[in-house]
């Protein structure tokens, strides 16, 4: 009894928490014990035993779980109807006396028998053991089984009592969750799309043996489905169906993509959708195909998920649910992959044209130069810039400019051979790399570069507007134009700027003297920056006189540069460079402040008030801060605004008349006066001129130089004077160097003059002395 109680205690401790299972086991154990009693022992039970047996039998037969009892040799003593049906019988009594070994030829039979012997021999129960079912209908099935010892009234173990429950659906659901989690983890880890799709398809096929899965991916143009994954389909079949058209009648996949809805073909041999492909599928034993389109989160088609079956028919509800899950995961994987591809592409390509960007180009150029050094091939680089592209953007709009850039990119690409490369590295700048064999003559490469330049210049229609873009191109060849990628690009760039200076729409080969010129220019730029920081500039002032009286009424401030080692640098050597680099803005601001302060200083010395004229460069005039700079200079110096005159060039004003007019009116609002410098050399619209708030025109020295010998210059000067008089504008003649010129101007009615005859640019002290002299003469 102690041994029996000990075994019972262990069994009780091992019982599952599922009370239904416990009760069923106990009821079955009692029923089995009754059936094993001898007839003599049962006679005393009489009618009550029969009744109890009946209702217990009915109870267990209505339970869907498998309930049974076996003797020590594994023969069935009792079973409910579920067990009988599971083993191919209708009446549970037909099972009595049979063993699993006799009923099933299954590799797990011996393992099950061994487990039952262990329960009988040790008295230890088996609780909630998961095991494969011996009967498989539509694939693998799983049971959870509990078995306890069956004892007689004396406590002797005479067999086992068991209960089993089909957990195939539960296990499948768990596996689905596990597989989903594993696939989502692979997606998050950035594993390759092929690896993820292969794992997904293999997992689906494992649930339903006899099916084969594939994923087709939509091509970039959206017209074709391409092979994505098909780990178990025959390779020859995958190859034969690697490009499926997206059409109304194109098998299951092509049609599903066209309709954007699932297409389930139950019999490939007879379905008209497969008329053109059936012989291929049937030759591999594929009888049915069920295809579902795959979409991204925005509803855009990504491809199709397809299941092939080797038997005709439609998918079961369970399989349809599995397909939905697989399609969803496929969509996540494909969309993530495409997003990563897009990000990677954007990291190395230009967003507008799709061309390689500078980083990728530099990498490929380095590789090309390494290869050239090994095999003796040639690498030639061209740096090209579109001529007057800014005018396209400003006049036609940036959307047209973008179309021009894309057209140019396509045209260049069409001129390239395998191994060549083009990159967009700026707004309208491209770099082209051509590779040529060792025996290929250099002249052929240059002709190819010229072809690219001519192709770019072909007319193009943009929004109905005919447009012809030209480009300036600089070409450098490895070894001659540099040994490294950076040297080659820099030298091609230098040659391109030389082509720009040559007049645009041309190609120039790099020469060493170009590099020297570029180095000199770079050195000059740095020295100019240093000159600004170290205040190496000073101002000289050229007198402006009244032709009638000869007296000075104003001065023009002229900037001069005293270089520490080069001495006095002529304005023509640094003003254009300052304009090009934008340093003229800083220089101009300094000139403005210094000139205003000097005008006030002369007044503090007791000299009569003068007008001080300050040149405003085109670059300065375009700066939005000009108005503030002028106001600050006046405020800080204390100069009266009407004593400051700003000289503007015709080209700066006419570049953008509405903006220029706005800026000029703002400056006039400060109280300063405006003059148009070098008048007659640029293009002025007389209709616009009459609206400009200017006080004075300065006739350019080129018209004064040949007076009185050149009648044309005399006529032009007279016309300017006449026009100015009618517009109530003052006129000053620049560059007066002879008495004859001054006399002729006076005769024509010019009232103001400036030039070497009147006075050279001088220091502030020299100007003060001249003013003091004039004052003394007037007093005497």
Automatic annotation (TrEMBL):
Keyword Cell wall biogenesis/degradation belongs to the record: no
Annotated EAL domain residues: 521-775
Domain GGDEF: 377-512
PROSITE patterns noted in UniProt: EAL, GGDEF, PAC
Reactions that this protein is recorded to catalyse: 3',3'-c-di-GMP + H2O = 5'-phosphoguanylyl(3'->5')guanosine + H(+)
Keywords: Kinase, Transferase
Cross-referenced SMART domains: EAL, GAF, GGDEF
Gene Ontology terms, MF aspect: cyclic-guanylate-specific phosphodiesterase activity; kinase activity
UniProt KW Transferase keyword: yes
This protein's name: Histidine kinase
Origin species: Xaviernesmea oryzae
